[in-house]
Amino acid sequence: MKSFFTVCLTIVLSFALMFAVATPVFAASSPEILDNPSFEDGVTGWTSYCKATMDIYDDGAQDGTNYVTSSVKYNGVDEPRQYVTDKVAFYGKGTYHVSAYLKLAGDSSKAMARIIMQTVSSDKTVGSTTYPGQQWFVSSVAGVEINDTTWTKIEGDLKLDWSGNLEMCEFYFQIDEPAGSEDSSTDNCSLTKLDYTGAPFPTTEPDPTLAPSPTPTVAPTVKPTPTASPSAEATTASAVTTGNNNKKTPLLIAVGVATILFAGSGTALLMMSNRTKKGPIAEAEENAPPTPEVNE
Q: CATH homologous superfamily of domain 26-193?
């Protein structure tokens, strides 16, 4: 029974050892550094060099839907190229893995191609001595033969180093002569920092897992109701009424005075009328001295 248990344990440990040896351990690396590495968003994030042009095609891409074809190159420098200064400065000095797929699109059937990274720093320090001024450093992977029928992968590890402040860092391609001036196509590029376990390069893109803040509701501004202006007719009527009232006051006074005068005149006339009726005889009798009484 003990022997059977020992055999089973030996078999289990043997399988575990086999899987441990066969399973490769990959070094951690940074997230993808290049923007739009497979040209699915056209040439966004990429630039051309000198008079080179970049055209997007969707017939036979190596990855996804689109790829780019460069033409009118200068000194064999194949386009496109991308500036990665901020991201490389963030991830720091060290070893970077580069890769891309290329093929010729001109008359030549084959040529040598390579990936290049170039850095420019503000100064250079050797030992304890600092040499001011811009310092240029160029790193390139070994040339790989490409053709005009199939996509060929170019890849390798490049060590990036600089002194002082990193002012510029670019990722681009070069096709050697004799096909250096011909059209070529590029797709599925990549640039990552090896042996990196830190935080990714910060971006300003919104986190899709976060619910958007509700848009505040702005209460509409209530305009005050305008006071209706009196119409012309109402104004005229008011003016007429006011005028009539103003006219009635002196009219009433005049009527009152006339009434008083009329009443006084009537009294005078009445007295005169009575006086006229008496006549001269009556007036004499009235003015005659009283008759003396006669005593019998």
A: Galactose-binding domain-like (2.60.120.260)
State which amino acid sits at residue 291.
T
Query: What phi-psi label fits residue 142: left (phi over 0), alpha (psi between -120 and 50 degrees) or beta?
Result: beta
Give the tens place of pLDDT for each residue, 5-55: 565 556 655 655 554 444 444 568 999 999 999 999 999 999 987 778 899
DSSP secondary structure code for residue 256 in this structure: H
Domain ranges in the chain are 26-193, 245-280
| One-character DSSP codes across 206-246 | PPTTSPPPPPPPPPPPPPPPPPPPPPHHHHHHHHHHHHHHH
Structural tokens at position 176: 């050697």
- Tell me how far CA of residue 72 lies from CA of 52, 66, 147, 172, in angstroms: 5, 20, 18, 16
Number of Cβ atoms within 10 Å of the Cβ of 99? 16
C-alpha neighbours within 13 Å on the C-beta side of residue 147: 3
252 is written with which tokens?
Answer: 């009433």
